[in-house]
Amino acid sequence: MAPAMDCETVERENIPERYLAGTLDPELKQQWELHYFGCGHCAELVDTWQAVDKPLRQRADAIRKEIRPPKARRTWLWAGAAIAAALVIGLAMELMLPVPGRIARPPELAVKPAASRWTEVARFDPPSYEPSTLRSTGSPAEVQFQTAMQAYLGRDYPRAISGLRAALALDPDAPAPRFFLGACDLLTGDTSGGTRELERVAAGKSPFAPEAEFDLAKAYLQQGDKDRALATLQALSNTPGDFREPAVQLIARINSVQ
Fold first, then answer.
1. SS3 category, 64
2. Where does 21-130 show beta strands of DSSP type E?
3. How far apart are CA 106 and CA 44, in angstroms?
4. Domain coordinates of the chain in residue numbers?
5. Which of 1, 3, 51 is nearest to 158 (CA)?
6. Nearest Cα to 126, choosing from 223, 62, 199, 211?
7. Other CB atoms closer than 10 Å to residue 158's CB: what's the count?
């Protein structure tokens, strides 16, 4: 088992920044996710990075122009770097200061766009979830799943992902955390990861299998694989259940796209 991570290591090695950039190796990523889910301080660090990262990316072109203007002399590089640093600091302060009448909310997560002609057809919405009353004798895996789903209901999908992975570490065969993990992967733009998890659920016999197949079809469309999406939906349309009619309707929509 990977050794536990502490807050000192998180700050010393810039773990939140590297995690959001996708540059952590698998072992370090696992240590971080297990620590992050149970540490409020480190969760706030991630929230701050997410709040700064998206608007900063939107200003990237302007920052680049300041740093590397046409025919700039070396002295302008230092000036541009100072401007970029000022923008980062100012933006962080702007996001942290309370604004009258503005309600704080979790940062919205960008979902990778599907192939252009399938964008609307392949749009993926969060699967519904109704929290159940947890029995006092619930297993550690069940408790972990219910906790993770509180983050899911709050649309804090990165934190839900960490909790769902922790639940699966306790019970790898549980279909519910694997299904919602696949959904969260798609919602955060990890199409390949979401596809992998949903394929495992769809191959099983749990009540989540039909919905996993339906969501898989959209994941395939996001990857531009129309034929595989249609094959998945065709099989679902021939199976009685709640997703038979939605599958028929989605087939018609796909076929209507030129």
1. helix
2. none
3. 11
4. 7-96, 116-256
5. 51
6. 211
7. 22
Q: Which residue has the tokens 């709040």?
A: 51
Would you tell me how many other CB atoms lie within 10 Å of the CB of residue 85?
A: 11
Q: What is the pTM of this model?
A: 0.56
- What Å distances lie between residue 148 and 35, 56, 168, 177, CA to CA? 14, 29, 11, 9
Neighbours of 102 (CB within 10 A): 7
CA separation for the pair 54, 45 (Å, rounded): 15
The yes or no reply on domain 116-256 and CATH 1.10.443.10 is: no
Burial class (CB in 10 A: 0-12, 13-18, 19+), 155: middle
**CB neighbour list of residue 52: distance below 8 Å, 6 or more residues apart:** 88, 91, 92, 95
Task: Please list, in sequence order, all residues whose beta carbon lies within 8 angstroms of the beta carbon of residue 161, skipping any fewer than 6 positions away.
Answer: 33, 181, 184, 185, 188
> How many residues comprise the chain?
258
As a whole number of angstroms, the distance between CA 89 and CA 97 comes to 12
pLDDT along the chain (258 residues), means of 10: 71 77 78 75 70 55 49 40 49 46 39 55 89 68 92 94 95 95 94 95 95 94 91 93 93 84
Contacts of 239 (CB under 8 A, 6+ apart): 210
